[in-house]
Fold Putative thymidine phosphorylase.
Amino acid sequence: MNAPDLTRPPLTIRRISLDTGRENVAVISRRSRALRPEVFRGFSRVELRINSKVLLATLMITDDDAMIGPDEVGLSEPAFRRFNEPVGSAVSVTPARSPASLDAVRAKIQGHTLSAAEITAIVDDLAHFRYSDMEIAAFLISAARFTTTDELLALVGAMASVGTKLTWDTPIVVDKHCIGGIPGNRTTMIVVPIVAAHGLMIPKTSSRAITSPAGTADTMELLARVDLDVEQMKQVVHACGGCLVWGGHVNLSPADDILISVERPLSLDTPEQMVASIMSKKLAAGSTRLLIDFPVGPSAKVTSANEAMRLRKLFEFVGDHFGISVEVVTTDGRQPIGRGIGPVLEARDVMAVLGNKPGAPADLREKSLRLAAHLLEYDPKLRGGTGYARAKELLDSGAALKKMQQIIDAQGPSPCPAELGSYAADVLAAADGVVNGIDCLRINRLARSAGAPVAKGAGIDLFKKIGDRVEKGEPLYRVYASDRSEFDLALAAAQAESGFAINHHTPADVDLVS
Amino acid sequence: MNAPDLTRPPLTIRRISLDTGRENVAVISRRSRALRPEVFRGFSRVELRINSKVLLATLMITDDDAMIGPDEVGLSEPAFRRFNEPVGSAVSVTPARSPASLDAVRAKIQGHTLSAAEITAIVDDLAHFRYSDMEIAAFLISAARFTTTDELLALVGAMASVGTKLTWDTPIVVDKHCIGGIPGNRTTMIVVPIVAAHGLMIPKTSSRAITSPAGTADTMELLARVDLDVEQMKQVVHACGGCLVWGGHVNLSPADDILISVERPLSLDTPEQMVASIMSKKLAAGSTRLLIDFPVGPSAKVTSANEAMRLRKLFEFVGDHFGISVEVVTTDGRQPIGRGIGPVLEARDVMAVLGNKPGAPADLREKSLRLAAHLLEYDPKLRGGTGYARAKELLDSGAALKKMQQIIDAQGPSPCPAELGSYAADVLAAADGVVNGIDCLRINRLARSAGAPVAKGAGIDLFKKIGDRVEKGEPLYRVYASDRSEFDLALAAAQAESGFAINHHTPADVDLVS
């Protein structure tokens, strides 16, 4: 009795210019020939079917025949793209039941643990857009309450198995990942060319900024094209031994992208979800050696050594299970790395380090060298303990810069002009003293409100870092924006609260990479 | 820095014929003058503001100027209605942050208990449509995991306080509620006229069917108008001492309606949420004496005496706290009550009982009398133990029927024709034996697939009940439908699995009302 009602006439597909993000949306007329719209309300779910092809969508109802007539069903942009059938095709539209895997989610809500088969079914339905927003939220929140280690392993395995699975013809495929939160922390763009110049394979995919003023992909985009598909990425890696591309077109762990799109608005952030997200992507990417950077600081994502330890163990446990050698380093996350925050400014810092320019940010150089050193030690041919010296040699000799240029050429020319925002003003110290702290969250927010990362030239250029002595009225940093109203807002906010703590203590020294 | 960006030009409101149900939806152009749509994705949240009036909405983006131009913002039907500003009004549109109360939801997800103030803030935001679907799901699921008794009391109080709060000029205001799940269980339409005929006040609001083939409001609608607003309802109660109206226009506990709209698609159903839903509505309705009917049976909502006990204690606890005298009766929920299932058939049964017609269903009559007896005992002037006799007297004498007629006249004429579906066929016994069980879930589904409650004349008319002897080929029930394809589907499903268990045991006897 739950079979589709095939005796009703099919509707013809029409495309509606509505970008509804992740959610599939279908529109029918209140006088539809194929459905009794009285039984529907807005945001019910319907099933569209052509032969064996099925799409689940959230329903909206219109009274406007110009939008959708009684014989039509309208598909929003993402639904139209995913269903991939031409306008005018005949499609059956029936009420949809929830995906069967939702029973497991309900059990999880009640406190049961899930089997690997149940988790695999959930991830499969997620990745194929069969869950509504609410249903995704239901899964995430039930899992946020508790996730057993067995559940976590099943989740990582299932997430890595849907979507692209890359394999490489060498046993040592290195990768690095930073859990984020630190402005200006663009070490990846220095580490990748060093490691590739040495001869280890490092096929790096990165994200665009989600809540920060720049991601590696946003910054790299100023130097080269980053929206490569899988085949194009493989060509670059085979030619250069490494790449710096955006993960968006490579489709590694698509379920993760979907989960993140709900975690973000709900600000859900549990260790297990972080580990599942990162490890599923690395597993799908074919990485075998992974270095993870945990910045620790009062305004970083990880605020204490205990928290870092727990998270490290979780990464190691999952890595061991899947045959990925995971190494976690805790780094100084008390302040931004480098000087620039925002894509253009960060690209400037990266190229200054790679080019051994005078005035290149020493902390960005030093951190990148230390991370690269860890990765180079994965090379069995390198004598133990010489990774740092080798990294420094590759950077100082210009080999890393040359490799970066090769990667840029292979990926293709950047589509973006690398211009700084035309509005700029300095934010000044309110008193004499020593910089004792820089609030990373605050600096991130200021750079975002100035327009970064959408406005590539917007952001913040730091003149002072922790330990620097400042005089009242001396500039702390410069705010850049490309848009007048964003500039006014960001500057006013920075002047109200700069994010700098200035007093007369001398800050404690912290080792950069543990 | 999170202040609205007032330096951007406002947009003008346009109305879009899209019924998006509970969710507020706003549409802007990808080339919008007031927003940088690049920073948005579909299903981001935006804040619309005119002076101090604010609406939160989920955003969709269009490339079609004919739908929404760069100077416009489109509001879906519910958003337009709720914002209540004319087409063409200038409105500022800015990115919306989540409601502040969502921090408490996040704490709850992490396992914290919430204060009364936090719960009140959540309910206030819910009732004012400030939560997205996902956010509502987040709250429900965090609460489904555990809800303390203090949290439950705070929830009931907060839910009852938003929306209409009815007060009556008498200390004894009786009410009844059935937790549902039993087909044909239309006792309310018999109990209300008996109790009102006696002289106790019983201002009854009922729901339409959500997952069953008929609600009291759907059935009553065949006899009288039910979509009364608060003032009209009060007039009926003052004139008749009781009413039988749909709760939808009375706006008791609007937060409950919103929670239910998410609980339903997720099939969330915890004791605490059931208690919060029912008790908040009764408190808002001004009820002081409440009788709750728990049908217990293998396919009922409550399947065991232990479960019934736990739920009863929870209702009593909340009732005591808010000064509502709650009495719970467990009733026989092993099979449907009466013969008809579906609005027209159920209205027929109700009127047969009220009219003392020969052949009126004895079980529906008996159960209604027993429930009415419990309610009549709330009258201090009635001698203890005489409630049943008094109820029977009011029914047998025709006083209850007369009262029903008075209520019908006061509420106004029914807008619906009371015609049975024109397609009908009998479902036959597959073997000789005795009816040992009737699956309530199955019967509900069959009646729904036949078209009930939307098709008022669709449903099932039972010829056999538990304990009846049947011969192979004898009709068990008749399926009615108004639509050919629904008829075919329902009949095929019924023939595949009738919902009747027939064997050679004699079923155990169960007392009707405990």
Q: What stands out?
A: The first strand of chain B starts at residue 11 and ends at 15. Chain B has a mean pLDDT of 91. Residues 28 and 61 of chain B are 5 Å apart (CA to CA).
